[in-house]
Amino acid sequence: MGKFWLCFVPLFVAVDAIGVLPMFVGLTEGLAPSQVRRIVLQSVIVAMAVGLVFLAVGKAVLSLLGIEVTDFMVAGGAVLFVLSVRDLVTMEKVQRYTDPESLGAVPLGVPLIVGPAVLTTTILLTNEYGPLLTASALVINVAFAGAVFRSAEWLNHLLGKTGAKTISKLASLLLAAIAVMIVRKGIEGIVRGPT
After folding, report:
1. Contact 110, 45 (CB under 8 A)
2. Could you say which of 24, 25, 39, 142 is the most buried, measured as most Cβ atoms within 10 Å of its Cβ?
3. Strand, helix or coil at 183?
4. Are 45 and 107 in contact (CB under 8 A)?
5. Cβ within 8 Å of residue 191, ≥6 positions away
6. What was the pLDDT predicted at 73?
7. Total domains in the fold of the chain
8. pTM of the entire predicted model
9. Which ranges in 65-151 belong to alpha helices (H)?
């Protein structure tokens, strides 16, 4: 069970459902409840599909390109660090998007729920803990994001704009620390060489 949480927490931080919440509220403002429910369902299905497909083929693609996992750890950790720092210093993650027909798929499903940070984290966790634990953690995190969006009105009222932004910034800081750890492990693996 301990390994599951080691998979779950980095993905929870990378998905950042609470941080995306204010954007979800802004994007769905003025839409009928039935439209919002459909958008939430669409976003969860698209995010899960993209995440699981990437989990299944990501390692094979790396192998095909001749990229070692330690190389990807350094590159992926650096990308995660840049993304987390960007989220720390900017106020918004996405511009307003108004097409309710595709809103659930883009930008909510991809890249807000499953974006570069989640995809990079998924490959790194698959290497560390295996595909089954990583897939389970990914599915639960995406489902949690869907639950957060379904409870958007209540949660937004409870947290307020400042509370949601604070949680998002803390999540970005934690993601930056995880990124540094991934880079460190990658460099250690390169220095040790093949075992």
Report:
1. no
2. 142
3. helix
4. no
5. none
6. 83
7. 1
8. 0.80
9. 69-89, 116-129, 131-150
* Three-state secondary structure of 62-89: HHHCCCCHHHHHHHHHHHHHHHHHHHHH
Helix (H), strand (E) at residue 19: helix 17-28
Within 10 A of 56 (CB to CB), how many other CB atoms are there? 12
Residue located via tokens 């210093």: 89
What is the rounded CA–CA span in Å between residue 20 and residue 168?
A: 8
Give the domain range for residue 81. Answer: 2-192
195 alpha-carbon distance from chain centroid: 31
Q: Which residue has the tokens 């993650």?
A: 93
Identify which of 182, 189, 188, 162 has the alpha carbon closest to the alpha carbon of residue 75.
Answer: 182
Mean pLDDT of successive 10-residue stretches along the chain, which has 195 residues: 90 90 82 93 97 92 86 85 84 59 89 86 90 96 96 84 81 84 88 77
- The residue count for the chain: 195
- 29's tokens: 């403002």
> Which pLDDT belongs to residue 50?
95
In single-letter form, the type of residue at position 100 comes to P
CB atoms within 10 A of CB 40: 21
Residue the block writes with tokens 């989640």: 118
